[in-house]
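The methods section describes the discrete structure representation at length, but only in general terms. Each protein is reduced to its one-letter sequence and a matching series of backbone shape codes. I believe one specimen quoted in the main text would settle the matter. An entry of this sort, consisting of the sequence and the corresponding backbone structure tokens, reads as follows.
***
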Amino acid sequence: MSKPCIICVAITGSLPTKQNNPAVPITVSEQVESTQEAFEAGATICHAHVRNDDQTPSSDPEKFERLKEGLRKHCPGLIIQFSTGGRSGAGQTRGGMLPLQPDMASLSVGSNNFPNRVYENPPDLVEWLAAEMKAYSVKPEIEAFDLSHILKAAEMYDKGQIADRPYVQFVMGVKNAMPADRDVFDYYIQTVKRLFGEDAAWCAAGIGPNQIVLNEWAISSGGHARTGLEDNVRLDRDTLAPSNAALVKRAVEICETYERPVATPAEARKILQLAPLEAA
């Protein structure tokens, strides 16, 4: 299989702390350094959250701005994707960084259960976030925690609420949401191809020990892969991951096993229909 594979590194998230793994980057400078290492290892998308100094999640646009500046300087061509997830803020504060015009932003188009809460994405907020992304030319990545989220993305695309053909990421392994189920995974792929075309790009993310499972399923099936300390802080049951780069290198090794070249920044931008390097 000669199709290039885009590797996304989710560097920080909202939950892991240095108590879980000292390698989790919290400050903006730590995030830039960790991302640069992951970029040099093969990642071409950085999925980014920001944190307060006490490690709690934040939606502070100023922190996102400093992070974007650092990543542009040290990771030329990297696709910067900001999170609009619900753990970092409430309501429209979740999209307060979108005027900074990152290349991409995550967009959850429906609600679902998380381990100890409901991950709320009410329709009016989803539509507002989508409208902000469209206004600022930010490409959404649809985070699908359930089949209905893929169908909702298709509906929004048909209505023009999402400007470009949706790029869908399957998220599997969150407790109380969709487990890592191979039959469901295969049906997700079938659904994306039916709704968006046989050549539609898609990605997959696995949580905790499911990370490497989903990496292999996605890479072997022609999709793109997400890894990083946001989703998983370990290399195995007994070994903490020493860095985001170490998890990226593991995904690169899977690409080599299935003879998938790792996408360069230019190739990733072309696949996702983003501005080329010269204009980025």
